[in-house]
Amino acid sequence: MSEPAAINRGRTWPTHVVLSVGAATMVFPFAWQIILSLSTQSEATSATPTFPAAPNLDNYALVFERLPFLSQFWVSVLITVLRTVAQLVLCSMAGYAFARMRFRGRDALLAVTLSVLMVPSQVYLIPQYEIVESMQWLNTVQGVVAPGLFSAFGTFLMRQFFASLPIELEEAARLDGCNPFQVFWRVMLPLTRPGLVALAIITVLWSWNDLLWPLVVTTDGTRMPLSVGLASLQGERSTQIPLVMAASLLAMAPILVLFITLQRRVIEGIAHTGLK
């Protein structure tokens, strides 16, 4: 081994140790969740952590008996897809308008939009519920989806991406005869693909895990998303911990598969978001 290589290895091993400890810390809760899902209730509630004496998959089968799991799964998928598509379309159009178009009151309207980020979402809960109830959308997919079709954060994120693009691209497209919508759709929007990916990732995670609003507007077990279904497994006096762990893993599986499949694009999107 050459001397420079030995020196570099000597300098990097503390980094490897720190990263290994961090990785183990991150993975441990997930591994313990798997162990609990294979345990019995007495093993899961034991005062001293114990591994299951006879690991079994009974808790996974019990999930489908206690919950309308497939119905709730498809409701979650539908809600997530509708919210993600709507956010990509509406937030990108609003972001382009705030970044590139000139109209009276633009800066004031942007300030009002961004001020929404400073208000806790719980403040809107009762007014949104009254609106949805007046439209007779309780226990419906549209009632759950409606408040999440547009977001101030998504608009701000896409505005930053559009503002970073050179104006010469826009001018060249106009010289070639493109109208404003064609400039947006054919020239500018494809160049913000990292921003769209980042916004899609954030919206998917938020929508899949959203609990408070679906918990308020859905009471029918077959029309509520998985996040609310998991919450309903918690008892008033005691909770079947292995059952909840098994249901949580089943609910987590689609997001995990999606992350593994799109891992490279996920990291690129988040990295570009951090640079804005």
UniProtKB/TrEMBL annotation:
- Name any Gene Ontology BP term: transmembrane transport
Which family is annotated? Belongs to the binding-protein-dependent transport system permease family.
Which parts of the chain span the membrane according to its record?
A: 12-35, 73-96, 108-129, 141-162, 183-208, 241-262
**Membrane-topology descriptor:** Multi-pass membrane protein
Keyword terms, alphabetized: Cell membrane, Membrane, Transmembrane, Transmembrane helix, Transport
Say if the entry is tagged with keyword Amino-acid biosynthesis: no
PROSITE patterns registered for this protein in UniProt? ABC_TM1
- Name of the protein this chain belongs to: Carbohydrate ABC transporter membrane protein 2, CUT1 family
Q: Where is this gene product found?
A: Cell membrane
Q: Which residues form the ABC transmembrane type-1 domain?
A: 73-262
Q: In terms of domain of life, where is this protein from? A: Bacteria
Q: Which Pfam families match?
A: BPD_transp_1
Q: What is the originating organism of this protein?
A: Actinokineospora alba
Read off the SUPFAM superfamilies from this record.
MetI-like
PANTHER family the UniProt entry points to: ABC TRANSPORTER PERMEASE PROTEIN MG189-RELATED, ABC TRANSPORTER PERMEASE PROTEIN MG189-RELATED-RELATED
Q: A cellular component term (GO) from this record?
A: plasma membrane
Primary residence: membrane
